[in-house]
Amino acid sequence: MRTECYGNGKAMFILKTMIEEDVLEHICESKTPKEAWDTFAKLFSKKNDTKLQLIGSELLSVAQRNLTIAQYFHKVKSLCREISELDPEAPIGETRMKRIIIHGLKQEFTSFVAAVQGWPTQSSLVEFENLLASQEALAKKMGGASLKNEE
Q1: How many CA within 13 A on the CB side of residue 37?
Q2: pTM of the model
Q3: Using an 8 Å Cβ cutoff, are 63 and 123 in contact?
Q4: How far is CA 62 from the centre of its chain?
Q5: Do residues 61 and 92 make contact, with C-beta atoms less than 8 angstroms apart?
Q6: Residue 129 in contact with residue 73, Cβ under 8 Å?
Q7: Is the pLDDT of residue 144 over 60?
Q8: Which among 14, 24, 49, 118 would be 20 to 30 A from 35, CA to CA?
Q9: SS (H, E, C) the chain
C-alpha cells in the first residue's frame, strides 16, 4: 500500500510540475493520477465537441464556388476525415459524403449529376470524382461552355 501511495505521489508531482497553470487549476484537488486523468479527459473532450460542431457546420456549408473538382472533393474529404478522427463512433460514410458533395457543386453540374444518379449501378465516390473531373476538363476544352442543357 505504501509503494502505491508513493507511486501516486510521484505521478501527481510530475503532472503538477509539467502542466501549465491554467490547466493545473483543474486538477489541483485530484488525489490520484486517475482522478487527474479523468478530469483531463472531461476537459479536453469538451473542446473536441466544440471543434466537432465547428467542422460539422463548415462541412454543411461547403460549396465548390471557384474550386476545381479535385480541390472541392479534397476539401470535403478532409473535413469528413477530421470529423471521423474527433468522433470515431460516427464516421461519415461514402453515401453521405457524396450527398454533401452534390449539394455544394456548381449549378452547371446539375444535369450531369442527375444523369449519373439515374444509372442502375451507382458509382463509387472515386468513380464519381473521376466522372466529374472529366466533365470539368471537357467543359474547359470546349472554351468554358456551360454544362447546362441549352433550352
Answers
A1: 6
A2: 0.64
A3: no
A4: 12
A5: no
A6: yes
A7: no
A8: 49
A9: CHHHHHHHHHHHHHHHHHCCHHHHCCCCCCCCHHHHHHHHHHHHHHHHHHHHHHHHHHHHHCCCCCCCHHHHHHHHHHHHHHHHHHCCCCCCCHHHHHHHHHHHCCHHHHHHHHHHHCCCCCCCHHHHHHHHHHHHHHHHHCCCCCCCCCC
Residue in the structure block whose three cell numbers are 473521376: 130
CA dihedral 86, 92, 98, 101 (to 10 degrees): -20
- Tell me which residue has cell 509503494: 3
User: Residue 14 corresponds to which cell in the numbers above?
Assistant: 510530475
Instruction: Return the C-alpha torsion angle 105, 106, 110, 115, nearest 10.
Output: -60
Contacts of 8 (CB under 8 A, 6+ apart): 31, 32, 33
| pLDDT 10s digits, 79-114 | 999 998 888 888 899 999 999 999 999 999 999 999
- What does the pLDDT read at residue 138? 92
Q: Tens digits of per-residue pLDDT, 29-69?
A: 777 878 887 887 777 766 577 888 899 999 999 999 999 99
Does residue 27 surpass a pLDDT of 80?
A: no
